[in-house]
Specification:
alpha+beta, Helix Hairpins, HSP40/DNAj peptide-binding domain, 4-stranded mixed β-sheet, 3-stranded antiparallel β-sheet, 11 helices
Amino acid sequence: MSTKDYLEKDYYAVLGVPKTATPDEIKKAYRKLARQYHPDTNQGDAAKETKFKEVSEAYDVLSDSKRRKEYDEARTLFGSGVGGQRPGGGGFPFDFGDLFGGTAGQQGGGGAGERLGDLFGGLFNRGGGGGGTTRTTSATRPRRGQDVESEVTLSFTEAVEGTTVSLRLTSSAACAACTGTGAKAGTTPRVCPTCEGTGAASRNLGNFAFSEPCRDCKGRGLIVDDPCPVCEGSGRAKSTRTIQARIPAGVADGQRVKLKAKGAPGENGGPAGDLYILAHVKPHAVFGRTGENLTITVPVTFTEAALGAEIKVPILKGMPVTLRIPAGTPNGRTFRVRGRGVTRKDGTKGDLLASVEVVVPQTLDDKSRELLTEFNTATAGDDPRADLIQRARSE
């Protein structure tokens, strides 16, 4: 993506959030749009696939506090449009068409700081008169690889305990047919005569000299006369590989896991991009989850709740634990079993929250009915609704 394209894109509008949106609001908007436009649910729909890529690109920038700050500062400096005067008037005229025109998109990704670094590296170099010297950037400098996004579906237990999954990734890499040169096998590129292989050219605007990628070689420093038929001279091609990715313990449904340097390989010795994995967690038949705590509903009998009891409660992994139910426990009361919940980042665990549910017998034999009738007679003076009726009348 060229710097011009980068500055012109309104990532906030793509996600449908205001510039003041919090990280949680940005994440919520991204999840909603990712589900709506994901290629797996819109197979064959090129428009929605393109939209999904735009949404992912916007989230990559706005979810990273450093990249978001750089993006906001760049758009504040230059404005969201191109052309016209410098904000505030009174300054020198900026022709953004000259400043950005003809810049070639940098394949291979890279953060906002890297893209703006290419621009600002030789932006304001004062020349003498109309000439002057310009600092240029070598076309062979290392470039960071693209970030890659994938998805994985985990069982409830895998999400709580952590697991390792196999992922098949497709990303951009050096073309195997031409080893990244862009030239057909048996031929070699030649040095660009315009920029003499630097990949950059200067343009003088009054007292300022601007550096921009060479228009003839598109910033590569090389001219390909006989392009590679596989990559059509770009030097890049799609690469498919399988990796083993470690999903940390405690990941939640819809959470985005970042694995550093697991994305697309870099160029010219540059670092690899990052891998972002969107986790989908299947529900459990018995357990639920609230933050770092697991939840469970435990059925108890009327007599256990009334008289008290010691009951066995299952945990996610391992032998059941014994829970003491005191006499007179009401329906819905929650007990905390410490250290039996979700693993935190520091290695400690949350708790298991066990809520009791008093089970009413569906059928009674004669003996049970007789005993319950005697109990009902003995407690006839205890009306649990007396206060309720009195309070209702007082309103």
